[in-house]
Design brief:
disordered N terminus, Rossmann fold, alpha/beta, 347 residues, globular, 35% helix, 6 strands
């Protein structure tokens, strides 16, 4: 049983860098291909009719991470992106969607489920495409959708996403090596998780996700789910532990809503203390991270820098709490600024 708890404690994972990081100039975020409003042949048309779908501004679909939910235990007020949807609507972004997928599974399965939600959003809004905004594992799910259905995706934004696996994933895999024990844990997760996570189902598998996060598992994922041509990819991440991130974070071309926080420091949430220490390992030269994901791991596509936040601060958890110790960075302001940046680029 002790090994069971060890595995469960380290299930929310981080990762290690992307070969697809695109250098950008000092002056501005690079332009994306001009959006069009032409009709798109969709895989879900009715009675052979291809509907005319409109162009930008595109709806935003926010993809949650591991352990994610839209309404925890059926309580609508407790959402993964805490209060973000309503706050953005109050600022004029009415078409923001926060669908839920299986909280414990690999991104191939979760991405397939996310695709169905994307199709439904397109039906509802009449738009040709969506912007995918994924936090943590949700960024991997978004990459699956963009790879398999690029015609549905205007842009992919990932935030603190483990693009190359994680030492934490490997640790969890080593903690429980017996296949029967893993099967028992998966069964327990399905039993306990059912009432709490509406999307938990018989296919739910904690170890399918952990296998993907492990270094050996993420390699084949990245080989299979390459970036879709013509779809722009942007990435951000958090830095915590009262560190600035220095060279890892301070890349050229960061937007003003990132650089304004360069001198702000963030203490790591106590619940992430153990995972932060495990990721840092070298106390003399610790790798900047948000308590679960290393900065080098979160870089994908056009990397636009770090914010002073840990993995929970990034989504307003717990229950809308702000970062501690006079840290004034705000997660809702961040999401609004990123969406405004995309709107300015014709998306």
């Amino acid at each position: 049983m002790r090994n069971v708890w060890v595995a469960l404690i380290v299930t929310v994972t981080g990762a290690c860098g992307s070969p697809n990081v695109v250098p950008i100039g000092d002056d501005e975020v690079p332009a994306v291909p001009e959006a069009t409003a032409r009709a798109v042949e969709l895989p879900f048309t009715t009675r052979g009719v291809v509907p005319e779908r409109s162009g930008p501004p595109y709806p935003v679909v926010m993809a949650h991470g591991f352990f994610g939910f839209e309404a925890f235990a059926g309580v609508n007020q407790i959402s993964y992106f805490y209060g973000v949807k309503d706050a953005l609507a109050a600022r004029g972004e009415k078409n923001v969607f926060t669908p839920a997928v299986d909280p414990f599974n690999d991104s191939a399965a979760r991405g397939a489920a996310l695709t169905k939600h994307v199709e439904e959003v397109i039906r509802q809004t009449g738009k040709a495409k969506v912007i995918l905004f994924g936090h943590s594992q949700g960024g991997l799910d978004a990459r699956v959708v963009a790879h398999d259905h690029p015609e549905l995706v205007a842009a992919v934004v990932t935030f603190a996403t483990p693009h190359r696996g994680s030492p934490l994933g490997d640790l969890a895999q080593r903690a429980v090596t017996d296949l029967q024990a893993r099967a028992a844990i998966d069964a327990l997760v399905r039993l306990v998780g059912g009432p709490l996570w509406s999307e938990a189902q018989k296919e739910t598998s904690l170890f399918a996700a952990l296998g993907q996060f492990a270094v050996a598992g993420i390699g084949p994922f990245n080989v299979k789910y390459t970036d879709a041509p013509g779809v722009p990819y942007f990435s951000f991440t958090g830095r915590s532990g009262m560190r600035r991130g220095a060279d890892e974070c301070n890349v050229p071309g960061r937007p003003a809503f990132i650089t304004r926080w360069d001198d702000e420091l963030d203490p790591t949430n106590v619940g992430l203390g153990a995972t932060e220490l495990y990721l840092e390992q070298n106390i003399f030269d610790p790798e900047p991270n948000d308590g679960l994901v290393t900065v080098s791991s979160a870089k994908w596509g056009t990397f636009l820098g770090c914010v002073p936040a840990d993995h929970l601060d990034e989504i307003g958890q717990l229950f809308g709490a702000r970062p501690g110790l006079f840290n004034d960075w705000g997660y809702v302001d961040f999401y609004a600024a990123v969406i405004s940046m995309l709107r300015a680029k014709g998306l």
